[in-house]
Amino acid sequence: MTATAPSVRPPGPGTGGDERLLRTSPLRKLMGRPELGSVVGAIAVFLFFALVADSFLRASSLATVLYAASTIGIMAVPVSLLMIGGEFDLSAGVMVTSSALISSMTSYQFTANVWVGVGVSLLVTVGFGAFNGFMLTVTKLPSFIITLGTFLMLTGLNLGFTKLIDGTVSTKTIGDMWGFDSAREVFAATWTVGGMDLKVTILWWLVMVALATWLLLRTRFGNWIFAAGGNADMARAVGVPVKRTKILLYMGVGFGAWVTGQNLLFSFDAVQSGEGVGNELIYIIAAVIGGCLITGGYGSAIGSAVGALIFGMTNKGIVFAEWNPDWFKFFVGAMLLLATLLNAWVRRRAEESRS
């Protein structure tokens, strides 16, 4: 973070000057990184499946792992920023499906170029995020209540509108419409790199991680995010626009849902209206595994990416090891508990080193 940020200190002990400007050893800096625990966990998961699953290290297997991680990671990045800002979003999973449905039905019903549907979907999906942020700041209700309400409304709208317009629970195919091939190249293309068939979502994921990291560590807006999540009242008292910051963070979640939804649509050219339910918990868990605190004010975008990678390795590693996939949820729960304990230990050590 830059020295030009508002003089709001992130939570932590000590009564001296701004601890972000203090000189610390490289080891202390490393111990203070939120993503340290998740990186250790990712290495352990990788080594584990490399040993128990013979096919795990194949190029095709690693490409599959990266694709699975990217579809989670694209959403985990804005969700992690939102959590650092002190809030979370239970509507993120179904919002992805809403994005795909809006794009598909707009294009099909108006016999338009699919890019028209893509553009309409972007505006509406980001608008959903703005609605969540606006309702949060106006009503002052907990984000749990606001986004739970949005989750239920979007779940009903997805099913109701799809059956009303298309007569079934899935959209009509748009694979033969103008602009479909070019849109697929942007949102669902496959590139062959070094013998690996990599999906374009991996590039989207890396770009979003880099952008989010730059925002958090090199901009005033990043300082506002940490301040709003650490102590909103204190941040507001020194001039941080807390309301605007949180609305923009929710709009960021809407943007991530739009990207993921377009990938879903252009990968298959049709969408089931009931998809996405439950994925919001996966995005939140990926962020928590990556070092974000539920209470806000602490975390990183890189950590959320590592958390998504752990999800991808575990999900596909179980398949490559030929285990019963019914055990996946057990491993997810175990990873969540272990990562939370490890992250708490890392944060405690970081605070002790600054005291």
Could you please describe the fold and organization of this structure?
With about 350 residues, the chain is mainly α. It has helices at about 25-30, 35-50, 60-85, 90-110, 115-140, 145-165, 180-185, 200-220, 220-230, 230-235, 240-270, 280-290, 300-320, 330-355, and strands at about 190-195, 195-200. Strands 1-2 form a two-stranded antiparallel sheet. Helix 2 (about 35-50) packs antiparallel against helix 14 (about 330-355) and helix 4 packs parallel to helix 6 (about 145-165).
Determine the N-to-C terminus distance. Answer: 20 Å
Q: What share of residues is helical?
A: 55-70%
Provide the spatial order of strands within the biggest beta sheet.
1-2
Q: What's the order of the H and E elements?
A: HHHHHHHEEHHHHHHH
Poorly predicted residue ranges: 1-21
**The biggest beta sheet, please?**
2 strands, antiparallel
Radius of gyration (CA) equals 21 Å
Oligomerization state: single chain
Shape: globular
Q: What is the tally of beta strands?
A: 2
Number of helices: 14
Structural class: mainly alpha
Strand proportion, as a percent range, falls in under 5%
Write down the overall mean pLDDT: 87
